[in-house]
Amino acid sequence: MKNPATFYRWLSILLLISGYTLPVQAQNLTLRADKLRNEENVAIDGWVVNLEQPSNIVEEKLTNYAKTTFSAKPDKRTKNVWVFPKVQLKEITPLRGDLRAVLTPGTDNTTLGFTFSPGYDIHLSKEQYPKELAKLETWVKQYVKYHYTEVYTDQIAQKEKELKNRQSALEKEEKKLTKLRESLFDSEAKAESGDAKATAKNEKNKTEIAGIESNVDKLRGEIGEIEAAIAELNDSIKKVKE
Asked: Which portions of this protein are annotated as coiled-coil regions (predicted)?
């Protein structure tokens, strides 16, 4: 394939015309109601989601969210139970309370659950505070959207960095190619007249040109793949926000 980047662009156009779209990044936005154990091993009603990122990413995003939203750092009561004390979630209740996050790492994913306690031994529950518990579900859904948006935004930034590096490498290779072709053209006449030195130089230039052309095609293909990945990630962000 002479120009893989062109192939990817035409493929995207054909898919768009046919109504087919590239698959977006998978994300799980489905919550389930469950009992979560706090740091005192008390079972509390909450909402749980399975996030498709390892625990270090989940912890990083949760920490950033709390810092930005609550100006609070997590109080890590146990390895898996984080408490954000005396925060106010106006979407749920005007009362301040303890927001708990329970993190359970998997192989390449993390189960994240939330509970809210407006008092030391007062917790949102389906029996006593069903409306507030339902509002907590809505809040958790919004948090999950925040999580995936941040994750995909980070991935886009990384891909854009890779894209810039590939484009820079391509520019350098194309400049080398131009110089070698000019050198080949300049010595062509001498080589045709039987100049052994010019002939040897031309053969060397042709070999180098073939190698650089191959590298240029490879770089263009990689650029096309990265551009497609960035477009897919942007589509994923749109899907998350829907």
From this structure: 153-236
Sign of CA dihedral 154, 159, 162, 167: negative
Q: In 10 A of CB 20, how many CB atoms?
A: 9
DSSP sequence for 206-217: HHHHHHHHHHHH
pLDDT digits (tens, 9 = 90+) for 14-28: 433 333 333 345 566
Would residue 194 be called left, alpha or beta, if left means φ above 0 and alpha means ψ between -120 and 50 degrees?
left
SS3 159: helix
pLDDT in tens, 26-65: 566 789 999 999 999 999 999 999 999 999 999 999 999 9
Token reading at 155:
């991935």
Arch. (CATH architecture) of 31-143:
2-Layer Sandwich (3.30)
Alpha helices in the chain (DSSP H): 4-18, 55-69, 130-192, 196-241
Q: Exposed, middle or buried, 149 (CB in 10 Å: 0-12/13-18/19+)?
A: middle
Instruction: Give Cβ neighbours of residue 18 (< 8 Å, ≥ 6 apart).
Output: none
Cβ atoms of residues 224 and 1 within 8 Å: no
**Confidence band for 208, pLDDT divided at 50, 70 and 90:** very high
Query: Dihedral of CA 240/73/58/150: which sign?
Result: positive
DSSP symbol at 122:
B
